[in-house]
Amino acid sequence: MGEASVFIKRLPDIGECERIFKAAAMMDAILMPEWEYRYYSYNAQWDKGEQMASMRDGEGDHYFAWFDSGSLIIKGYDKAYASLHKNRLGDVLKGVPAVFNAFLHEPAFMMDQTTFCIWNEAGKNGWASSQQLTDEACVLIEILAGGAVYYHAWAQRIMRSNWI
């Protein structure tokens, strides 16, 4: 397994990630009532005992976060990062623990488009990745480190760009 970036070492625990993902989806639902214009979503009943959070920007960038049995895995795809580092991405999904096999084989999560994958396995008490990541690779999940402050700044940028 690769060494975690400084960024993923700052990520909160699984419970706090769940709270942040839910809050972002709720705020998006308030700011953008039409489903097709929302960036953040949360499905508390993805499957029995599973929950799923996602972000899609409408231009190809996205992440999917899957909660199951006290564990959390997040994969993302950043188009700009992919184009800059296409020869150095390697097998981003190599080394993902078997507990996440259902996630890895879920077609809705577009596993063929992945620039980062991190996980926090129940009982392991920490974030891991299959390769050494730069902080730049994980920018799509900045909301987890920045919380409400990040979301507020992001929403202001989005609302200005949509109204100007």
Account of the protein in words:
The protein has 164 residues and is α+β, with helices and mostly antiparallel strands. The protein contains five helices and six strands. It has helices at residues 6-9, 14-31, 79-85, 101-104, 142-163, and strands at 40-47, 50-56, 62-68, 71-77, 116-120, 128-129. Strands 1-2-3-4-5-6 form a six-stranded antiparallel β-sheet. Helix 2 runs parallel beside helix 5. The radius of gyration is 15 Å and the shape is globular. The termini are far apart. The model has no long low-confidence stretch (mean pLDDT 86).
What's the tally of helices?
Answer: 5
Physical arrangement of strands within the biggest beta sheet: 1-2-3-4-5-6
Largest sheet: 6 strands, antiparallel
Question: What is the mean pLDDT?
Answer: 86
Distance between the termini: 45 Å
| Percent of sequence in beta strands | 15-25%
Which series of helices and strands comes N to C?
HHEEEEHHEEH
**Proportion in helices:** 25-40%
Helix-strand makeup class: alpha+beta
Assembly status: single chain
Low-confidence spans: none
Number of strands: 6
Indicate the overall shape.
Answer: globular
Rg estimate, integer Å: 15 Å
Walk me through the topology.
Layout: H1 6-9, H2 14-31, E1 40-47, E2 50-56, E3 62-68, E4 71-77, H3 79-85, H4 101-104, E5 116-120, E6 128-129, H5 142-163
Antiparallel strand pairs: 1-2, 2-3, 3-4, 4-5, 5-6
